[in-house]
Amino acid sequence: MGRDKKTTDEPPNKGTVFVSGYAMLPGKIPAYSMFGTVGVFLIIDSSHGKIIDADFSLVSRTAKEILQSIFVGKNIDNDRELILEELDLRYFGHAQKALIAATNNLLERYDEMTHKENE
Question: Rounded to an integer, what distance in angstroms lies between the CA atom of residue 61 and that of residue 7?
Answer without folding.
Answer: 19
